[in-house]
Specification:
Largest sheet: 4 strands, antiparallel
Structural class: alpha+beta
Helix content: 25-40%
Radius of gyration: 20 Å
Strand order of the largest sheet: 1-2-3-4
Shape: elongated
Number of helices: 3
Strand content: 5-15%
Order of helices and strands: HHHEEEE
Number of domains: 2
Length: about 190
């Protein structure tokens, strides 16, 4: 017998079957779900708009110190497990760092919600970063004429820096990094 459990959203990453574009909460644009062209012209549907709004509100209500439970401590140096009473199953549901419906949330004196301005600024910065990366990637594809298994350096199309790149021979994935700090840097 095969046991399947439904996907439970906890830290703001949602996957929906009809999604053609999903971005993470911590590292990208607000979640953008598209209907995959099922009769509404490929635009954002009502379900997607609701998901975007809920995700935005979760991000606004998340603590500025929260950096994910893959870390032992938050940015304010609070040990996640110690704060919630030790390593027990479900300790993350007791964290005050992220919005939760749990009645077992352990309050934290250092909790500080991110706020709308912070999240909006983060979204703008991420959108600009994604734009720089897209422009840089396009320049690499043009410079290599789609050839795989190559590496090199070109002028960065977004700034005055040098864009180093490698195109994998096996699958054509591109790694790129501009010499200008904060410009473009990615790995596919």
């Amino acid at each position: 017998m095969r046991y399947e459990r439904p996907l439970r959203l906890r830290f703001g990453v949602a996957l929906i079957c009809t999604a053609s574009l999903v971005s993470s909460v911590e590292h990208g644009e607000p979640l953008l779900l598209r209907d995959g062209g099922r009769g509404s012209g490929g635009g954002v549907n009502k379900e997607a708009e609701d998901a975007n709004r809920r995700q935005f509100e979760r991000r606004v209500a998340t603590c500025v110190h929260f950096n994910g439970i893959m870390n032992n401590c938050c940015r304010a140096n609070i040990d996640y497990q110690q704060h919630t009473g030790g390593l027990v199953f479900g300790f993350a549901s007791k964290l005050p760092c992220i919005p939760s419906d749990s009645e077992d949330v352990v309050p934290c004196d250092l909790f500080q919600a991110r706020g709308r301005e912070f999240v909006e600024a983060q979204d703008r910065e991420n959108k600009e970063s994604l734009s720089r990366m897209t422009v840089a990637r396009t320049a690499i594809v043009e410079a290599t004429d789609g050839e795989r298994g190559v590496e090199g350096e070109i002028d960065c199309p977004s700034c005055d820096g040098k864009l180093r790149y490698t195109v994998a021979g096996l699958n054509g994935h591109i790694w790129g990094q501009c010499s200008t700090e904060g410009c473009a840097r990615w790995m596919e």
